[in-house]
Design brief:
28% helix; 7 strands; 164 residues; 29% strand
């Protein structure tokens, strides 16, 4: 699968908010249909959301395989984000999760972040229950630097960092 990053469109935002994950990953489900404010959020340049496309597919519906944000959207309230690093947030289309593709998606996000933003370090914040995501990022040389309860719902999160 050849992955390409492109600016998110309204159509992409509508598609990603319709994705439905099975428990326990259903915490990542969005409002469907999304409100106008939610669509505006994804399209806001400050969120730096990018559609991750499978270049071998012809239609946007099939081609949109993930999304990535670069910056504060990847942070979770309650964490300590004082270190100079670029935060990555990522969501993969539900039918592609659990198939061993995570490292491919994550490496593409790392490569894109390095080429586009030139950060000194990269950071991801992952819900502690999400062992699949934790394994992916640890395989790519991210190391745990912090655990904390979310300021929103008390769920435990882990911050991982990779120096570049």
């Amino acid at each position: 699968m050849k992955l390409q990053f492109q600016s998110i469109t309204r159509q992409h935002a509508l598609l990603l908010t319709s994705w439905r994950y099975a428990p326990p990953y259903d915490v990542y489900n969005r409002n469907d249909p999304p409100s106008d404010a939610e669509i505006a959020y994804w399209l806001d340049p400050a969120v730096a959301c990018h559609a991750v496309m499978d270049a071998s597919q012809n239609s946007d519906v099939d081609a949109l395989v993930a999304f990535c944000t670069f910056g504060p959207d990847g942070q979770v309230g309650g964490g300590d984000y004082r270190r100079d690093a670029l935060d990555i947030g990522m969501g993969v289309r539900p039918d592609l999760t659990g198939q061993g593709l995570g490292a491919h998606f994550a490496q593409a996000a790392i490569d894109f972040a390095r080429q586009t933003y030139h950060p000194p370090a990269l950071r991801v914040t992952i819900a502690a229950f999400n062992q699949r995501a934790i394994r992916v990022w640890e395989k790519l040389d991210f190391h745990e630097v912090q655990r904390f309860p979310s300021a929103h719902n008390g769920r435990e999160f882990i911050v991982f960092l990779r120096q570049l």
